[in-house]
Amino acid sequence: MANRNGGYIGTDGLDAPDAPTIGTPTAGNAQISLTFTAPTDVGTGSITEFIATAVDSSGNSIGATGSSSPIVITGLTNGTAYTCKVLAVNAYGASAYSEDSSSATPSISVDFLVIAGGGSGAYTAGSGGGSGGGGAGGYRSSYSTESSGGGGSAETALSVNTSVQYTITIGAGGAGGYEANNGNNSSVSGTGLTTLTSIGGGKGGNNNQPGDGGSGGGLSSDNYTRGQGTANQGYNGGNGLPLNSDNHNGAGGGGGAGAVGANATSNGGGGDGGAGVASTITASSVTRAGGGGGGNYRSQNSLGAGDGGTGGGGDGESSASAVAGGAGTTNTGSGGGGGSKSEAQAGAGGSGIIILRSPIQASATTGSPSASTSGSDYIYQFTGSGSITF
Question: What's the pTM value of the predicted model, to 2 decimals?
Fold first, then answer.
């Protein structure tokens, strides 16, 4: 029967409805959407409205009304936890409140694309064959239904709060030249946020072990294992070939965010870098984080080197003399190409990038990100380290 103790808004508790059954609160930007189930016993007369109330730990409350579930309670403080409750009203009065909901904390949901610096191609002093391509930097995305690297699904968007400064760190690509280096990590961090990190790409190998990373570096011979990629960030590098009778040594391509680096082949030379991944987070489709192509040392043959993976991977080089690998494209997190032999300079890895897409405009930034809009969203592209506050 109807609640005999309700009705504190009206005068006849016998005819007021029973309490609704509380559902699940879903937090948004300065708001909570509260689901509930209407009571079976509505008292004498139909329900005219429901009143939902959000209460913080200090007892401060904000309410909202609606005719059915869900009710959205606005004007809340981001970063503050609330429990919610709801009551039903008819012409005779109000029900008792439902039980309290579970806690929910409003925040701003910000999509991201975080790419680390790519690894360089290989370099080793002394004799040796073609150099392995560098692996792409780790690739992590939350936007729409797009993929993260390594075949991973889109991640959950960041939950950020207003008036908090978040630190943006852009990973440099692995330095090339007469050395080989892994790429550097890119990250987003700040108070109340679990730091989001993409791992730098692995360097290529040449008669030494290629680097593990966001994507792994390519291998120059069969004496070591190809570089390993990081789950949900990038793929492994490709395998190489040992020096053979016609003085040919092809190296594997670096892993890309979207595919494994190709293996070197005895009739094709160096392996191609693994493909990158396309994203439309900026409202235009751009492919980034390709692996570097594997190099090829040749003397009595005309075999070629591997091409850089789509998305900015540096090309490998093929020659009987020492020719440097191509550099990965800046701000794509792509791997550098492998040189034609061990003494050839390594192609540098491309630097990383971080892109944030928010429903509200930032109140302050440092590091000079480029800013644009798409529909009602604000887009910030960081090509250098800095910060952002909403």
Answer: 0.86
**Domain housing 49:** 13-94
Tokens of 237: 């590098």
Pairing of strands 296-297, 249-250: antiparallel
Domain end residue (candidates: 70, 94, 118): 94
Instruction: Find all residues with CB under 8 Å of 305, minimum gap 6, and list them.
Output: 130, 250, 269, 270, 293, 294, 295, 296, 315, 316, 317, 318, 337, 338, 340
Tokens of 126: 């002394």
Rg over alpha carbons for the chain, rounded to the nearest Å, is: 29
Asked if residue 178 and residue 38 are part of one domain, the reply reads: no
CA-CA distance, 169 to 367, in Å (whole number)?
Answer: 10
Mean pLDDT, residues 311-319: 95
Model confidence over 245-270: pLDDT tens digits?
455 578 999 999 999 999 998 888 89
Residue 331 covered by a domain:
yes
Q: What is the CATH number of the domain that holds 85?
A: 2.60.40.10
Q: pLDDT exceeding 70 applies to what percent of the chain?
A: 92
